[in-house]
Amino acid sequence: MLTLGIDPGVSATGYGLVKKRGEDLTLVEYGVITPGSELPPAQRLKVICDELEEIIVRHRPTDVAVERLFFSRNARTALAVGEARGVALLAAAKQDLPVYEYTPLEVKESLVGYGRATKGQVQELVKIVLGLDFLPEPDDAADALAVAICHLYSIQVERALEASGG
């Protein structure tokens, strides 16, 4: 199973591909899509969509996990993130991939066991879970990896419950 995790944003969209083989999770690729700030908003969204589609075509993930906007104090930021989320959902849908969505709280609870974990704590757990000898950076990419890991953990729990008849 290969999951593409996405942390959407207009100025920086993080992505991370995590492969699950047996009980092991391994890093395949991660990074950040950064459309130029000089581009008009529609062109920025096009860059994000095009690059996500290229990543999907190149790696052929089995599913996509996207961070869901849970709350934002700034309406303008929430709207921009929502637009980037829409583009991420579209890129996955164009390739007929199933999409799963997780709030930041769900991701943090899944990885750290605490919904108010810091960015540093999330990065450290991503490092440990994937057996890396470095902290994944920048934050957007680390968050995307965390979303992918959260999804793979969620699928594992669902399958265990199904197997036990619960």
Structural key phrases:
166 residues; alpha/beta; 5 strands; 50% helix
Question: Could you explain how this protein is built, in words?
Answer:
- The chain is α/β, with parallel strands linked by helices and about 170 residues long.
- Helices cover about 50% and strands about 20% of the residues.
- The protein has a five-stranded mixed β-sheet with strand order 3-2-1-4-5.
- Strand 1 (about 1-5) and strand 2 (about 15-20) form a beta hairpin.
- Helix 1 (about 40-60) packs parallel to helix 2, helix 3 (about 105-110) crosses helix 5 (about 140-165) and helix 4 crosses helix 5 (about 140-165).
- The mean pLDDT is about 90.
How many strand elements? Answer: 5
Q: Kindly, what is the distance between the CA atoms of the first and last residues, rounded to a whole number of angstroms?
A: 23 Å
User: Which strands sit side by side, in order, in the main sheet?
Assistant: 3-2-1-4-5
Please count the helical segments.
5
Mean pLDDT: 90
Which percent range fits the helix content? 40-55%
Estimate what percentage of residues fall within beta strands. Answer: 15-25%
Q: Over the alpha carbons, how many angstroms does the gyration radius reach?
A: 15 Å
The topology string of helices and strands comes to EEEHEHEHHH
Outline the low-pLDDT stretches: none
Structural class: alpha/beta
Q: Please describe the biggest sheet, giving its number of strands, its sense, and whether it closes into a barrel.
A: 5 strands, mixed
Q: Outline, from the CA principal axes?
A: globular
